[in-house]
Amino acid sequence: MPKLKTNKGAAKRFKVTAKGKVKASSAFSNHILTKKSSKRKRQLRKGSVLDPVNTKKVKAMLPHA
């Protein structure tokens, strides 16, 4: 049986919580920030928990998490 390899791109973008949920940070928060309102930028700082469908896909890419 070959080794299970972690998808390093996914490992840098997602974290798995102790209960098995997957956390991700918000997109659209890195550049072209001048046209975005302060409220929008503040809300983009918060991360989010992925829905069950995408959680399953991400966990397949993170076999050791």
Automatic annotation (TrEMBL):
GO terms for cellular component: cytosolic large ribosomal subunit
Cross-referenced Pfam families: Ribosomal_L35p
Molecular function as annotated in GO: structural constituent of ribosome
Superkingdom, natural source: Bacteria
NAD keyword on record: no
SUPFAM superfamilies registered for this protein in UniProt: L35p-like
Protein keywords: Ribonucleoprotein, Ribosomal protein
UniProt feature coiled coil, ranges: none
Example GO BP: translation
Keyword Ribonucleoprotein applies: yes
HAMAP family associated with the record: Ribosomal_bL35
Family statement drawn from the similarity comment of this UniProt entry: Belongs to the bacterial ribosomal protein bL35 family.
Protein name: Large ribosomal subunit protein bL35
Organism expressing this protein natively: Candidatus Auribacter fodinae
Gene: rpmI
